[in-house]
Structure formats: C-alpha cells, structure tokens
Amino acid sequence: MTVMSIGKAWEEAVAFVARERSLLFPVALLFVALPGLILQEMTPPELAGWTMNKGAMPDVPVSFWLSMLIGVILIWFGSLALFALALRPGISVGEALRLSLSRLPVLLGTAAAVLGLLFVILIVGAIVVVAFSMVAKPAGAALTMLLAVGLGGVMLFGSVRLLLLNPVVIDGNEGVVASLRHSWTLTRGHFWRLLGFLLVLTLLSAIVGSAAQVIFGLIGRLVAGADGARLTGGVAAAAVSTVVQVYMLVMLARLYRQAETR
C-alpha cells in the first residue's frame, strides 16, 4: 500500500500556491466563487427558510433548478481546471481550461453513475420499507430510520473513497467506469486519513467563512443597511472559502500524485 502523507501534501501545496497564485486564484474566483455567489443570491428566500426549518418544500421555479445545475457544472469545470494547473506545471490557463472542457463530460458521467446507483439503493430500500410497513407499521418506521442512516453512511463512505476522482479524470484519458475504479483503488487503505483531512478542511472553511461573513456583514450594515450586510458578508465568505478551497484542491492533487507513485 502506498504511503500517503497529509503533512507533505500541505507543505507542497503551500509552496505551489505561493508560486502560482496568479494563475490559480483568478480561475478559482471566476469559475468557483462567482457561480456559488450568484446561486446564493438567486436562492428564493422561502427555499432558504425551508432548508433551516424543513416542513413542506416550497414551490420553486424550474428556472432556479436549471440555474443551479448550470452553476454546479461551472464549479466542476473550474475545479478540473485548477487540478490541471496543479498537476501539470507549466501549463497555461487557456490550456487548463481547454483540458477541463474536454474531460468535463467524463466527470459528469461519473456523477450520473453514482447518483444512479444511490437512486437504485433508495428504491430497493423504499420497497423493503413498504413491504414491512404492510405487516407492522412500527417495523416500517424503524426501517425508514435505518435506511436514512445507512444511506447517509454509504454517501459519506463513497465520497471519501472517490475523493481523488477529479484529479484522476483530469490527469488521464480513462472513461467513466475506469475513472471511478481508478479513484476507488487509489484511496484503498486511506479512508480514515482522508476522512480526517476532509473534516478538518470543511470545518476550517466553515469557521473562517462564517467569521468573514459576520465581520464584513457588520461593516456592510453600517454602510448600506441590511441589504449591504447580506451582500458584503456573502462576498467576503465566498472569497475566503475560495482561498481555502484552492489550498484543498492543490493538496488533493499532491495526495493523488503520492498515491499514483509506486
């Protein structure tokens, strides 16, 4: 099994970002931060309230879901371009964007395959729950809870085992199934290490982003009231989170190189 060092990946990422920041951050801001910020501003208030309070899902225009899909695809496109810059020293931004565009269909195919598998698992689980509910309602309720917990566990496990999927897609010429298999193989034996890495970076991004949103939101409120606070805080949070994401993506690129080395 290949040794995977988070510390070494961090040192290499810090040095690489310091050297290539003029290439990385414009791409990250344009194709990662900006689409996310636009989607945030487009989110209907009733949908934002539903995500906090649950209950009945509000009626949201189809145009919003289409915009969300386009925004997610743009973010994936930008992420692939960042991985191209991190994995191929000397490549230009234009070359990275063209490479990202050519490999984007493979990444979309892997996403469709994973979502399809999760949908099949959900359907099978729902059939089992309905069957047990017809016999005994308490058993059906218990199985529903177990299904939700189990599906969450499967999603967490799969997301960690496929954490190196993007660098696999952008660095090679494999198809959908081969890319999924390759990524799964590279993370074998490194689940807990990668899970810890993912949790730490996610927590760090949330803390730093929230702090920036509060601080700059207060400044925006003093200048332009409630609307200024929301917009200024959102922009600051997106910018800070993007910086964290750039370091995370470069670290993943370095971890991928470590895993690829035999």
UniProtKB/TrEMBL annotation:
The chain crosses the membrane at residues 64-85, 106-135, 141-164, 191-219, 231-256. It comes from the Bacteria. Keywords: Membrane, Transmembrane, Transmembrane helix. The keyword Transmembrane helix applies. Residues 4-258 form the DUF7847 domain. InterPro entries: DUF7847. This is Membrane protein. The lineage of its organism: Bacteria, Pseudomonadati, Pseudomonadota, Alphaproteobacteria, Sphingomonadales.
